[in-house]
Amino acid sequence: MALLQSNKTTIDPRLHRLLLFVMLLAMAMGLQVLEAMIPPPVPLPGIKLGLANLITVLAILMLGPVSGVLLAATRSILGSLLLGTFLSVGFFLSVGGAIASAIVIAIALKWLRPTLSLIGVSVLGALTHNTVQLGLAWVFFIQQGVLFYYLPILWLLALISGTATGLVLQAVEQRGILTSVSSTTMLSSPLR
Amino acid sequence: MRPIQQQSRMQQMITMLKQFTWGDRFLIVFVFAVSIGFIPWLQSGDPGEAAVIQVNNEVIATLPLEDETQFSVQGPLGETIIEIKSGKVRVLSDPGPQQLCVLQGWISRAGDSLICLPNRVVIQIPGTPSYDGLIK
Does A116 touch chain B (CB under 8 A)? Predict the structure, then answer.
C-alpha cells in the first residue's frame, strides 16, 4: 500500500497515475472473473452482482471521473477476454452496465456526497448496473415485457451487493488509504 | 500492553449502522419497498384451466378448475383429499409425514404443481409458465 500513499516520493505523477490505474484495473478484472464463478441468480446472460463496481468507485475517487469511466470500460472489455465472453450477448450488457454505472457513480460522488455516503453511492452504482443491463437486454435481444418481471429481483440483489461493496469502501476510506492523485489527466498528458 | 477491546456483536452492529447516512437509509428502504411492491407481478402466469391428478404416474382424473369439488384418491399410504374451489386447487389432507403438499396451499397458474411424494400423488396444472420465453 506504500505506493498508493507515496506523496513524498519523487515518482513522476503521471507514472504514479498510470501505475494506480493499472493496479486498479487488475483488481477489477480479478473481481469480475471471481464474480463470474458465482452461479447467476437469475437465468439471464450478463446479469451479475456488480462487485467490480467497488473498484470503479475507488478509481473515480483516486483518479477522477474520466479515468474511472475509462477503467470501467477497459475492465469489462479485457475481463471478457479472460472469461471468453468477448462479443457475446453478455459482453454488450456488461460493457454497457459498467460504463453507465461508472457515470452514475461519478455524478453521485460529485453532487450527492454529503447526503449519501459511499454506501449509498455504491448502491446507486449497483442499481444502475443491473437496470441498464436489463434495459440493454430488452432493446437488443428480447423484446418481451416479461423481462421486467426480473427487475425487482435484480434491484434487491443490487441493494445487497451495493451495501456490501459500500461497507468495504467505507473501511478503505477509514484506513486512510484513499488519496487522490494530482489532477493531471492521463489522457491529456501521455507518458513519453 | 492494554488488552484489545472486544466489541460485542451488538456494538459492532451499531457502529456498522452508524455508517449509513439518512440518504443511504432512505435510498435503500425506498428501493426495497418498490422491489417488494412489484414482486406480486412475478407470479402473473396464465391462469390454469384444469388440474391433472396422477397417482403412481397414471392419470386418475382431469378436473376443470371452475368446479367446486372435493376429490379423494387412494395412494400407497392412504387417502389424499384434493379440493378445487374458484379456479384454485389444493391438497386438503394427505397421509405423508412432512405434509409438504398440504402446506404449499393453493395453486392456480399454468405450470404449477403439487407433489405428495410419499403417497405418489401429483397434481399438475398443464400449460407453460409465462416466463418460458426467457429461458428458451
Answer: yes
